[in-house]
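Give me the fold.
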Amino acid sequence: MEAADEWLLQSLRLYRDLHTFELQAPTRVIEWARGSRVCVAGYGQSGGNEILQLIPPPALQAKEAQGLCPERDFKVECGGFSKRPVYSLKHVPDTSLLVTSGPPDSSLQVWQVSAEDSDVIKSVSTIATENATGQPWAKIATTSARAPWVLHGSTLDSVQITELELRKNVYTAGSLCREELAGLAFLDSRTALLCCVRGRLCVADLRQPQGALTALPVPAAPAGDRWCLGTPCAAQGSGTGTQPVARLSSRGLLTLTDLRKASEPLASATARVPSPGSGAEFLCVSWAPALQGCLAVSGFDGTVHVYDTQSWDSCGREAEPVFVHKGHVLGGSGDPALVTVHTWHPQKPRTVLSAASDGSLHVWDWVQP
């Protein structure tokens, strides 16, 4: 316990707030929903995976600092069960709908978060996709800019948009390439960005129901690396050139790309990761929505690293993190925990939520250096 006690004492100086919650099973998704609620879901293979909507700690809404508070002060507001593992979960803005995906195929499940007089999250429909059997699980993104849409696909040739209210397909990507997707996102109501596991970027024009994909001329990625995608929240509804796109490789390489000049690397750096190339299942990179130039990286071990990119150049040198959250490393016994996902608070600049393979859920706010 000496290491944990030492970390706890250091935390009094490093953290403005720290709250923990123990989930019944590990989760790999954290999603902000209506009313600043948090949605999480399990990813076990045996069935009966919980989908929960949590009320965050009251301190997240307080204006004054609350200090260190390692208590179970998340509250379960409502929940449901998924028969399949949940690898991705997205809230549909301005609705009470959730969309999930996960093995063994690329179909989607749509859920209804019940009204205030019920504590049930119920399954309402399934979006089956053509040749879904045997395909990787689908990556998903949602928007309500024009209608409640879900953008989904597991490979470049399977990308489509489904209008949820009418259960109608409104866009299909015109591609014959079966390269696996690492992530996708709406850039605005007319444009979507797709990232392949090998690092390739493509743009889709959503105004054409069966539009061809435009491959961006990004520099070739190192062979063997797997990549994930991070798009700034400010880009939603703001067009393709407002802020850079971040990509993270399984070796810890971070690249920032201006989509207007994709052939010229805007900046790059190497994250300080313990065992680069060890795996890519939980790679996660995300921009801070309320902190200029900051992004967070996780998925290599039990830590979350925060970087300030404003001083980066294109040389790819190792970057010094401005903060490292180590709480999941010291949170339990047995095998070391691995951070499976993290996400930023939509309004609070330095507040991050992270979850790990041991079922721990943390929300933390570090002290400005």
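Residues 2-14 form the longest helix (13 residues).
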